[in-house]
Design goal:
Length: about 300
């Protein structure tokens, strides 16, 4: 079976449970504090591996993040191309309120120290049929797009988080674009989700476009095809990592050869289950749990 090569981030997540998300000028006392493995790249590699995919993770971590490497190793992820640098690992400060909503601040750290040799290592791991997966938490993104285009490499991009660099990106080589509603509006320079979704589908007519809408489900488009899916109803406690669980399980299902709609349902079930546990990497469900949810009921109608 083809594999997933994830050229992505690894972070140390500092999670604060708060009565409400802090507003400007406000100080809020944390009810609980915990440290978890995270980073969109690491989370998505773990999710794909737990879904049964073969996964190789390429990236950089600092000496303080050696335990992040072990998280991937225990999940069966190939980390031979994961490099340790002198820079501190990336880390995040995450606030989570009682409804499970979050606010996140990240710093790149070692994730922004990728060198040409790291990129070469990722592409060297890619074989025919493999997917290369990217998020927007690393450096040298423009170089990666250029090489992917030249090599005709299947490329999936979770353009998260959005930042000032996205205006310089040529996303022509991207075969599968995954964004949330905020990211979709920023990328398309539109003010509504509907306009953003249609603008992205028109801009990338030969690619797959997925816009995730949190509790309102998702929208998928390719050319003239449109699909709207709702969510699986669960008791959410922490939305952190839900999007990453969705991406990882979606990619694993596509690698298995599933149709896009079926893969989106699997990803949605994984994302929903991830909200029922605290943390990012620690909340990613196993394949059996996801399969049970998918088998028990279809997602609720799209909102």
């Amino acid at each position: 079976m083809p594999k997933l090569v994830n050229l992505g981030s690894l972070c140390i997540d500092n999670v604060y449970s708060v009565p409400n998300i802090t507003a400007a000028g406000e100080t809020v006392a944390s009810l609980e504090y915990a440290v978890h493995a995270g980073g969109k790249g690491l989370n998505q590699s773990l999710a794909a591996a737990r879904a049964g995919a073969r996964v190789a993770h390429v990236g950089c971590v600092g000496p303080d993040g050696r335990w992040l490497r072990q998280q991937l190793v225990r999940a069966g992820v190939d980390v031979t191309a994961l490099r340790e640098t002198d820079s501190p690992s990336g880390h995040a400060v995450i606030q989570v309120n009682p409804s499970g909503e979050n606010a996140i601040v990240i710093t790149g750290g070692a994730n922004r120290t990728l060198e040409d040799t790291d990129i070469d290592a990722a592409f060297s791991l890619c074989e025919p049929g493999d997917w290369l997966l990217l998020q927007n938490e690393i450096n040298k993104m423009e170089d990666i797009f250029t090489i992917a285009s030249k090599r005709n490499q299947r490329l999936a991009l979770n353009l998260a988080p959005v930042d000032e660099r996205i205006g310089n990106y040529d996303l022509g080589p991207v075969d599968l674009l995954i964004v949330n509603e905020v990211e979709a509006q920023a990328l398309s320079a539109t003010s509504t989700v509907d306009d953003a979704f249609e603008a992205l589908c028109a801009r990338y007519p030969s690619g797959d476009v997925v816009v995730t809408l949190g509790r309102d489900g998702l929208r998928y488009g390719r050319g003239s095809e449109r699909v709207a899916l709702g969510t699986f109803e669960v008791d959410a406690v922490d939305e952190t990592g839900a999007g990453d669980a969705f991406v990882g399980y979606l990619m694993a299902a596509l690698l298995e050869g599933r149709r896009m709609r079926d893969a989106l349902i699997v990803g949605s079930a994984a994302g929903a289950l991830a909200t029922t546990r605290a943390g990012a990497a620690s909340s990613i469900p196993n394949r059996e749990a996801v399969s049970a949810v998918v088998a028990s009921h279809e997602p609720d109608p799209a909102g």
